[in-house]
Amino acid sequence: MTRFALTLEFDGAPFMGLQRQAHGPSVQQAVEEAVKAMTGEAVVMYSAGRTDAGVHSLGMKVHLDIARPIEPFRLMEALNALLRPNPIAVLSCEIVPDDWHARFSCVGRAYVYRIANRRAPLTLERGKAWHIAKPLDDAAMHRAAQALVGRHDFTTFRSTHCQSRSPLKTLDLLTVRREGDMVLIEAAALSFLHHQVRSMVGCLALVGMGRWREEQVEEALAARNRQRLGLNAPPDGLYFMRAIYPD
After folding, report:
1. Is 52 a known active-site residue?
2. Exposure of 117 in the CB half-sphere (CA atoms within 13 A)
């Protein structure tokens, strides 16, 4: 049995999320079915993180075990062929030790959220970014975001369906910057609560639009009450960027 680590890029729009779902297609199901079509083996794919319906990936790390002898490059090429027309691509494939785990060996996860800040409607970026026509003050958003960095009780920014045992999380990084018409919010932590990034982005967007004072983000955090959440950003603009490992 050989353990393979894959890096996946995918468009989350057609899927109900990364993990298998009883009520619709998932990235996990598509990859596992592609492996079975190639090897005849029923495998289970484990991932560094979870993504909801509509959330995308630039570099999700996953692993799976295959009994049949196969070279990593051949496996990558075969999966990319079999995954069509699903919008999933295997960017890299390598053999890893048997005790390496995509989720439990991971020491950090990073996301980026993209806001298209322009008057014109989206065409090429439709479904790939959150469109906000009103001008955003990205500098104010960045200042407000710093109140969330560090170890806090993120109950306000946690989905009511979150299965995490504790709302305490350590946010290592939360930055806001502008590149032309695109406002980019980057977040990094060991792990995140369900909807945490989207909830933080929604409140920062309110600051950028002038509907919230900068201090209201810190006040919402301190309230530890989901009812104090101003806005939950849509999934369209959220991308899993990378998983970080000790080596």
Report:
1. yes
2. 20
